Amino acid sequence: MAAQARRIQQATDIAPLPVPNTGDEVQELAETLNQLLARLRGQATAQANFLAAAAHELRTPLATLQTGLDVSGRDPSLPPATRAALAGHDAELARLGRLVDDFLLVGRLGNGAELPVNRRPVALDELLLALADRELPRFRAAGRTLTIALPDDAPTAALTAATDADQLTTLLLNLLDNARKHARPGTGVALRLQAAATAHGPVISIENELAAPLGEHLAQLTTAWYQADPLAPGTGLGLWIAGRLAHGLGLKLEFREEQERLVVTVGL
């Protein structure tokens, strides 16, 4: 029972403890703890359901606002100041859209379930190029650079993996979003693809310079709602979502602190 309790403390699993049929204080303690865990499971489920319902209700008005901004932004008679203001509103709507998507994922993943995986061969170099093209405007708006490095002469098979392209994209978007928000001011983010080799499959890495050493925070980065800096922007959900998606896809997600840099690798 003690070993199971330690597993609960160190993970997101709050499954019931085994109850020994001893008729003494140990059995009573196990039953009491299970009642507490049942309440925690109920609260977690209610929280996840609320987030999912709220996010679902927000999607339609956000989409309507986005369409209105897109139409307004095409007006060639707009003065530069108005066009710049619309661009700022567009960026904020995109941020809200990402937050809503994250809340929907929390609703689906919060009860311990895994998402259905649609595996197919994915050209990772093409996926990363599309991802970088999509994220560049956000990096520029934040005053950061995003560089991408792809293998020059690797065969196509070495840059291909059987995975769910949509879930992998969401995973990488959350990692890039974290790097963009928390990298040391004035520095950029590097996105790299390493071709498959005999000892391993393709590896995607994201690196950024750290504003401060992570230390003991490193091991907690994929904990739900956890923030190394409570005053930093964000909800503390992005890396948790990345970790859950990596687990569901069977990927190896690692965080390392190397010479004042955070190196995140995704092994396929």
Helix and strand composition category: alpha+beta
Shape: globular
Lateral strand order in the biggest sheet: 2-4-5-7-6
Mean pLDDT equals 83
Named CATH architecture of the largest domain: 2-Layer Sandwich
Regarding CATH, which class of the largest domain?
Alpha Beta
Low-confidence stretches: none
Number of E strands: 7
Report the radius of gyration as a whole number of Å: 22 Å
Give a concise summary:
This protein is an alpha+beta fold and 268 residues long. It has six helices and seven strands.
Structural commentary:
Residues 53-268 form the Histidine kinase domain. It catalyses: ATP + protein L-histidine = ADP + protein N-phospho-L-histidine. Keywords: Kinase, Membrane, Phosphoprotein, Transferase, Transmembrane, Transmembrane helix, Two-component regulatory system. The chain is of the alpha+beta class and 268 residues long. The chain folds into two domains: 1-113, Helix Hairpins, CATH 1.10.287; 120-267, Heat Shock Protein 90 (2-Layer Sandwich). The protein contains six helices and seven strands; from the N terminus they run αααβαββαββαββ. The strands form two sheets. A five-stranded mixed beta sheet has the order 2-4-5-7-6, covered by helices on one side. Strands 1-3 form a two-stranded antiparallel sheet. The longest helix has 49 residues, at 25-73. The two termini are 35 Å apart. The model has no long low-confidence stretch (mean pLDDT 83).
